[in-house]
Amino acid sequence: MTVFGQVLTVAGALVLLLAAVGLLRFGDVFMRASAVATATGSGITLVLVGAFLVSPGVVDGLTVLLAVVLQLVTSAVGGVLLARSAVLTRHRFRPDTASTALADPARPGPERR
Question: In 3D, which of 55, 45, 46 has the Cα closest to residue 1?
Answer without folding.
Answer: 55
